[in-house]
Amino acid sequence: MCGIFGVFGHKEAAKLTYFGLYALQHRGQESAGMAVSDGREVREYRALGLVPDVFDEEILSRLPGHIAVGHVRYSTTGSTTVKNAQPFCVTHGGCTLALAHNGNLVNAHEIRTELEAQGSIFQTTMDSEVIVHLLAKASRRGIVEAIREAMEVIRGAYSVVLLLPDRLIAFRDPHGFRPLCLGMVNGGYVVSSETCALDLIQAQYLRDIRPGEILVIDENGLHSYEGVKSEATAYCIFEFIYFARPDSYIFGENVYAFRKRLGQGLARERPLEVDFVMPFPDSGNYAAIGYAQATGLPFEMGVIRNHYVGRTFIQPSAGMRDFSVRVKLNPVREILRGKRVAVVDDSLVRGTTSRTRVKAIRETGALEIHMLISCPPIRYPCFYGIDFPTPGELIAAKHSVEEIRRYLELDGLYYLSLEGLIAAAGGDGKRFCLACFTGEYPVPVREGLRKDILER
Ligand SMILES: O=P(O)(O)OC[C@H]1O[C@H](OP(=O)(O)OP(=O)(O)O)[C@H](O)[C@@H]1O
Ligand SMILES: NC(=O)CC[C@H](N)C(=O)O
Ligand code: SF4
Ligand SMILES: [Mg+2]
Q1: C-alpha span between 186 and 209 (Å, rounded)
Q2: pLDDT tens for residues 142-165?
Q3: Where is the Glutamine amidotransferase type-2 domain (predicted)?
């Protein structure tokens, strides 16, 4: 998952983008970048690292202009290298394009193989690059038509912000897997993955970019086109469960309220006799609050979060994840000793967090440790922009709930049911992608699709 942000018509576009990316940092921690246009010339800067480490005042001052596009990356196709940092910039036929993509294409390999056979030279190992090549190929027909043609060819998840020297364009796949919204600030426009970035820069939320829509923003305002027909949406439900920030509104709903409903659903399905409820912070907090309020059980912060560690699940290597989980969450002996506790977390993916942290809680002298997960078991890989890679890495793909309980050394392990998840989503599961829980993929995926498919 990545975070994307765009600005049109604000004299401090680079600064606004810096703040926007800062607010979207939870969506990608590997690299950050932006491209800025003053109406004629496009300048760019990208590097590995977090937003405040990549940019400083001096770098931002070298990016003048009123149009900008920015990106924070969490890789899903292609390794973590500066070359693979976005926005991806090219100059073709005298026109510079900078593209920021959130999502993952499922047919990038096929498209790339075909384009290479026709002589295209690729610079990165990202799926996102094929979009730029397709745009360049069709550019004679004008940018909107070129995007439309590209949208006919690419399959999978894409929320995209594209910068041209005099325009900003946003487009979104017909299923709308990833969020993308439009806001207004001081007469200018902003486009963002999540509304939390609009709040930070005091922009007013206008609406979401519609699935299948192409939205052009230029001197004359907004121009909306139908890119491809959107027959059915497949909003990523995992955005609500884990990915997005709780203060954001995505797919028309607030994330915090959604997560609380997940916790309330767990309380209905799995009321437990324990002394208190505690979350694995951060994203376990909101379902834990919902569970505690619905059951009437006390709520405690039994583990404390170190604020100098980011998200652990989205780190690209196992070694980094293991280390970070230890540094990140530390139990409070005083609170836990002699107690029966219900630990709530939003998800159990590889088991990295729970395996070591349950042990650490046990060592404090806690009497019983039960775990409540506010989504069903994740049994199938995601190919649409979340790095749940091979089924082998997914703990629930090969093991029963009882086997996982034993592996994690828990007294009890309970997942929210699929029905419970759908109920929390208002009862209409059809609007959502649920593939990692059900194996029913809204966009077909060919066998053997892997993160490093473009590396060879
Ligand atoms: O089973 P695992 O493979 O450990 O993955 C799941 C865990 O990772 C995530 O937390 P993360 O630390 O990434 O982010 P958070 O601070 O938002 O909870 C998620 O909230 C779970 O706690
Ligand atoms: N998670 C994402 O949205 C990543 C975008 C793109 N697939 C990349 O790997 O860079
Ligand atoms: S498979 Fe899961 S994580 Fe991937 S898009 Fe669908 S709901 Fe989201
Ligand atoms: Mg977590």
Answers
A1: 20
A2: 999 999 999 999 999 999 999 999
A3: 2-220
DSSP helix/strand/coil, 346 = coil
Amino acid letter for position 273: E
Partnered with residue 98 across adjacent β-strands are 89, 163
- Domain of 78, CATH number, reads 3.60.20.10
> pLDDT tens digits for 338-372?
999 999 999 999 999 999 999 999 999 999 999 99
Find the DSSP H helices in 297-375. Answer: 318-328, 333-336, 352-363
Active site residues: 2
For atom 5 of ligand 3, the residue with the nearest CA is 236
State whether 13 and 128 are in the same domain. yes
Q: Which atom of ligand 1 is nearest to the CA of 395?
A: 1
Residues 227 and 280 in one domain: no
Helices (H), 108-222: 108-117, 129-137, 143-153, 195-200
Residue owning tokens 């930070």: 200
Q: In this structure, which amino acid lies at residue 337?
A: R
Alpha helices in 185-317 (DSSP H): 195-200, 237-238, 255-269, 285-295
- Nearest ligand for residue 442 CA: 3
